[in-house]
Amino acid sequence: MMRTYHNMIAVAGEFAAPFRRTLGYAVISAVLQAAGWAITLPLFSLLLAPGALAVREIVSWLGGLIILLLLEGLVRWREMAFVYDYWHRVTEAMRQRLADRLRAMPLEQLARRKSGDLATILSNNVTFAATALSSLATLAIQLMVVPAALLVLIFALDWRLGALLLVGALLIVPLMLRVRRDANQDFQRIDEVDAAASAAIVEYVQGQAMLRASGRSGRNAPCLSGVFAHQHRVQHQTGHTALLIAKAQLILQLTLVATVAFGIWLSATQQLSLASLLCLAVLVAQLVEPLTLGLSMVRLFELADAALQRVNALYNEAAQVTEQPQQQPQHFAIGLNKLSFYYQQQEKPAIQEVTLHIPEHSLTALVGPSGGGKTTLTRLMSRFADPQQGSITLGGAELRHITPEQLLAQVSVVFQDVWLMDDTLAKNIALGRPEASHAEIVNAARKAHIHHVIERLPQGYETLAGEAGSALSGGERQRVAIARAILKDAPVVLLDEPTSSLDSESEYQVQKAIEALVADKTVVIVAHRLSTIRAADQIAFIDQGRCVECGDHASLMAIEGGRYRALVEAQQHTLST
Ligand SMILES: Nc1ncnc2c1ncn2[C@@H]1O[C@H](COP(=O)(O)OP(=O)(O)OP(=O)(O)O)[C@@H](O)[C@H]1O
């Protein structure tokens, strides 16, 4: 219970104070409600008293009851204010905080999480967590405080009646603890299979072209097979808690009936007044609803608890921090100093003790066999993740000490998979410099050799990327990304395999676009086509995470039995055959 409360306070964030206040109101209104029912005892006593009716006293008790009801309505109104005033704000703030948290998470950590899982947290779990704060928490208080207060009143009527009820309530405690524990585990499993199903659907939709080509786009698609059946199995298995709840409800009903029967016997044997018996009947009748409703809602409370835990766990994920003291890059040379890096859960390092100096305004090409570590090196230069050993500097400042805003302002990246956001092509190009004028956007597109392609589209620069996506070839998408980098005009450019899998015309166009982008910049390019990087200032040959050779084309070709030389000769041989 306390864990759930702490999770609620953590999730409420800046709204924790009004939330606490609302819980206070919920307690007060529940106590007022129970106090109202307590008035039935003096009323029944007066009504059943022998002799003339004590009208004045009856009216004053009724007046007291009306005041209590008015007070309760007033407090409940304040309580509801949280639901109406804050619900949307809490939901929005929660999503905003989670988005901030995702932004602060190292990209490597983010890439490891399934997108379906994150989507579930940001949509379903946030909605449920907000519902838990806005209405379930106060409902839970109502369902606990009202029966507790009624139990105290029944004890006051006759301690034996109270004790009987208490024993019945204690009998169901172990059952309910089991329901809570099982339901909590169930909902975590349900969340996991739901997230897996969402991820599978995303994969199924994105991979349609490939699946249709291989004749596996139907129910037997590899990404879907088994996912829904597993989801159904898990949902079915998790239904057993409903049986436990029904058992607890039965025990409770029997206890209530036994209490009333015991009260009748006490009254028949002159141990309980008739007024007390009538009052007992009223109090027991008031107990039925909150107790049965409370029991049937335990699963819902646990579902909310699971949502709170998942939202909180994401809040608490490690963030990539800017270490103190903050440093400013003094120039645009890059230094890799004894750099080593492991991907999570990988035994072999992807990068091992790489030391490389990339001078300002120079072109450095990374070459080597597939899986050697070239992409990882460029990713580390944009602080995709922090290296476990060694350091990377930009202009003499360590990346860990540069704020993300400053780093992003200095570095443009064009990676293998060009990502276009769901907006117009103009907005996509202006992503790195939203304040750019239309003329500047067109100018960047011209330099990137993509202007004539965009102009031919019916909506031109106003074409939505989603619609343009299917009309743009791989090379054209890359040129949109290059136009984006040209417009941003950052002094450092990281390019990852921009010429992979293109026909020769597209490759020529992309090459021209790159030439426009890299002039006067510090450039690191991952290259497979060695012909295009002969003029590079330096070429680093990366294999098994190590920099095994480094120099310009001529000096590397001069190494007898050198790795770069062997690669060039192998490519020349392939081209000539
Ligand atoms: N996200 C990841 N998680 C775990 N291991 C990874 C990840 N990305 C890459 N690796 C591993 O790190 C090593 C280096 O990969 P990297 O992609 O940097 O090589 P590369 O030289 O760029 O290869 P290619 O030329 O094929 O793109 C490989 O062993 C690869 O399997």
TrEMBL record:
Q: Where in the cell is it found?
A: Cell membrane
Q: Which residues form the signal peptide?
A: none
KW Transmembrane helix (keyword) present: yes
Membrane topology recorded in Swiss-Prot or TrEMBL: Multi-pass membrane protein
Please provide the record's keywords in A-Z order.
ATP-binding, Membrane, Nucleotide-binding, Transmembrane, Transmembrane helix
Keyword Hydrolase listed? no
Which family does the entry's similarity section mention?
Belongs to the ABC transporter superfamily. Drug exporter-2 (TC 3.A.1.117) family.
Q: What is this protein called?
A: ABC-type xenobiotic transporter
Species this chain originates from:
Candidatus Pantoea multigeneris
